[in-house]
Design goal:
5-stranded antiparallel sheet; Beta-galactosidase, Chain A, domain 5; 3 domains; 11-stranded antiparallel sheet; 641 residues; 15 helices; single chain; alpha+beta; 27% strand
């Protein structure tokens, strides 16, 4: 065995220093002697390492890990958080080294303690697949796959650190020392290389895990190793910076992250749990306040099943993750968001929907995040609409009375005189309005050839429908052919009325009616245009104009239970300006009647000189959407100047 003075000349293991390649040739005794401690060695852990005494070091490490496991279990929500590293496990088609480790960790977390009691029924639980000895043996073998050319990956390190924290003291002594050694070396190497690591192609959640959670967590597990305090500050700063960089000042996360927002939130939630375990503050007040705002936004995007809009469910149930994140954020238990999550997770079969009173509307819009959330109220029967415009095409998610109805990209195609016209994909929000009547969003993108495409999206507060419209605008008259494609959620069937262009969508517990207001009500072979549910599960609306500078393509989806069997009719309206009829590429108006309910839609496509008249209503506004009351007066849902 090499002496201490000789070992220090060769290398030292500490945070903030590179791990030399000689590390791989060291015995466990030599490695422990190379560890540099933050203070003068004391106790079995450090003294055993100092003298290369594996037995003494193992006893000290076992005692240390028992303390950590006890500390974790005494922390609020420990039962849900103990194995939370598994939340970030991704499904892979080809099982490999990481998948093998995930299986090992899952086996370990399901193993009973040494003194597991017999259940009250007198029957023992089913024998686990593996024993502790088998887990130790397999884990030791797994570590042999970690080499200089195939180093440990950050997520593998996270899994192993959590294993050490929770049940490390149960591992066989030789395996325990090997795992501790591998984790310390990997943490030192990964954190040392952070500044030179290229994260440009790495998802945001993995960047946050690698640069923030790993050093934050390792600094506590290896707190006695030199440099751990600086490592903790590095992790804390990177978690804060990564969080602030990907959220707006109102807490809205950027739409780019939505497909993996649960992984991203899992990293932040685990990091907050670790701060509770070690009683070390992660957030300053500014970060704490913004994180609460982020949780409020994310809860508002979750439907009656708890699923986050436009995010597939990965490992963890979204409502469970949101509930934990809300608690660790410090959000009040009396907040609408916390009460909503509690009601969703109560597990009780509800005879009727629950409703939660709130002072503010659960609606939010961020230009920077390219995201808007519209919600009529806090309930498991609420109407929820989220729209993003960060990509080439806006994406939309609609839950109607708590049932998912639309989810995915809102596609389109446009041809002008037979030539396809496209845009650059640079969408912007040009109008947002949220009040006691409705939430309204308007998007715009420049198209080739001097055309623009605008999209209107309105969700009323107290009625069960959504209004969606596309507006094509140009300067020269041409033959315009437009197609809109809206993504219907899986499980719906569609049927078109035999005589009209009305489309019905049905699934278990939900039916909706779709009305293409820009098409004539009656189907006519000689009249171009159609509405259908295509083979790809999209609402496909086609509309044309022979010689026009603009085209208005409005659509209403209605799911009002009391109106699902009521007769419906709609028509295009005559618009006049100063006594002259306005062409349809100058101004468009439509009326929809379902039973006794009547809806008026008006859009100015070219600015008028004076107020225009539509169905007896005079207006100078660009857009008007409203309902007629029983006296024939218009009750507006929206006016846009």
């Amino acid at each position: 065995m090499l002496g201490n003075w000789k070992m220090e000349e060769i290398m030292s293991i500490e945070f903030g220093q590179a791990v030399p390649q000689q590390y791989w040739s060291l015995s466990d005794e030599e490695f422990l002697q190379a560890v540099r401690w933050a203070s003068k060695p004391r106790g079995d852990l450090m003294k055993g390492a100092q003298f290369g005494d594996l037995k003494r070091f193992g006893q000290g490490l076992t005692a240390r890990l028992k303390e950590i496991a006890k500390q974790k279990k005494q922390t609020k929500h420990s039962a849900e958080m103990l194995w939370s590293a598994l939340w970030s496990a991704e499904e892979v088609e080809d099982p490999g080294r990481t998948a093998d480790l995930i299986n090992l960790v899952e086996s370990a977390c399901n193993l009973p303690g040494k003194n597991k009691k017999v259940s009250q029924s007198g029957k023992r639980k089913k024998t686990p697949r593996l024993s502790w000895d088998e887990v130790s043996r397999l884990l030791y073998g797994w570590l042999e796959q970690v080499t200089l050319s195939e180093p440990m990956q950050p997520f593998e390190l996270l899994l192993l650190m959590e294993l050490l924290e929770n049940v490390g003291y149960r591992l066989a002594p030789a395996t325990l020392i090997s795992v501790w050694r591998a984790c310390l070396s990997a943490a030192a190497a990964i954190c040392f290389k952070l500044e030179e690591t290229d994260f440009s192609e790495t998802p945001d959640d993995q960047v946050l895990l690698n640069s923030g959670e790993i050093p934050w967590r390792a600094s506590f597990l290896f707190s006695q190793v030199a440099g751990a305090k600086n490592l903790r500050q590095l992790g804390q700063q990177n978690l804060r910076d990564g969080f602030f960089d990907r959220t707006d000042t109102d807490g809205t996360p950027h739409a780019d992250m939505l497909s993996r927002i649960d992984f991203w939130l899992a990293t932040l939630t685990r990091s907050l749990f670790i701060s509770q375990v070690w009683k070390k503050r992660l957030w300053d007040q500014e970060a704490r306040d913004r994180f609460q705002l982020t949780i409020q936004v994310l809860v508002a995007t979750s439907n009656a099943s708890g699923k986050l809009a436009l995010c597939p469910v990965h490992t963890i149930d979204h409502s469970s993750l949101l509930s934990l994140a809300a608690w660790f954020s410090g959000l009040s238990s009396r907040s609408a968001e916390r009460m909503y999550l509690k009601s969703l997770s109560s597990g009780k079969k509800k005879q009727s929907p629950f409703f939660i009173q709130a002072d503010d509307h659960a609606a939010n819009q961020s230009d920077w995040s390219a995201l808007a959330v519209m919600r009529n109220y806090w309930s498991d029967a609420s109407n929820l609409l989220m729209v993003t415009w960060n990509g080439d095409l806006p994406a939309i998610s609609l839950s109607a009375l708590g049932k998912q109805l639309l989810e995915g990209r809102w596609e389109f195609s446009l041809t002008v005189n037979g030539t396809e016209v496209s845009g650059d994909g640079e969408w912007s929000a040009v109008c947002w309005n949220s009040d006691e009547d409705a939430d309204y969003l308007e998007l715009q993108m420049e198209l080739d050839g001097g055309y623009t495409l605008e999209r209107q999206i309105l969700l009323p507060r107290n009625q069960h429908f959504v209004f969606l419209a596309d507006i094509v605008n140009g300067s020269e008259a041409a033959r315009l052919e437009y197609r809109s494609l809206l993504p219907v959620s899986a499980g719906y069937t569609g049927s078109v009325d035999e005589e009209t262009h009305e489309l019905s969508l049905k699934t278990k517990g939900m039916s909706a009616r779709v009305f293409p207001l820009g098409l004539p009500q009656e189907r006519d072979f000689f009249q171009p245009g159609s509405l259908s549910l295509n083979e790809q599960g999209q609402i496909e609306l086609q509309q044309q104009a022979a010689e026009a500078t603009a085209l208005y393509v409005p659509l209403v989806i209605d799911w009002e239970p009391d109106l699902k069997r009521k007769p419906a009719d709609w028509s295009s309206l005559t618009i006049s300006e100063a006594g002259q009829i306005s062409p349809r590429d100058v101004a468009a108006g439509h009326r929809l009647r379902i039973g006794k309910h009547q809806l008026l839609v008006y859009r100015s496509l070219k600015k008028g000189e004076v107020a225009r008249a539509v169905l007896g209503h005079h207006t100078s506004y660009e857009s008007v959407i409203g309902r007629f009351d029983s006296d024939g007066d218009l009750t507006p849902l929206l006016f846009v100047e």
